[in-house]
Amino acid sequence: MTERMRRVDEVLKEVLSEAIPGLKDPRIGFVTVTGVRTTADLKEATVYVSVLGGEAKLRRTLEGLEAARGLLQARVNSELRLRRTPQLTFEYDPSVERGVRMTQLIDELAPDGPAEP
To answer: Which residues, 6 or more positions from 5, have their beta carbon under 8 angstroms from its beta carbon?
Structure first.
């Protein structure tokens, strides 16, 4: 990935992170944009999100984000002024959930206190 594409991905992540909390769709819960991956031709961008809540909340949030895709693309277009505005798709990023689970497992394996000599 080129440095330019990394910058585009990072700016897209920033713009979307600011725009999503302002959406008024009740289906959209607490969302964190964890990353963006844009194709080299800027036609498509996959937005990776983490959602607080269970499976049902995740499903509803992704539906709400898909419904707001046009509004979010318009926001990206007005903020970035790219020659071509990428088509956004939203995918769940399980890495945050995996990280929390790993921390729990480590805590379960760790001794309760310092070992006595």
So the answer is: 38, 40
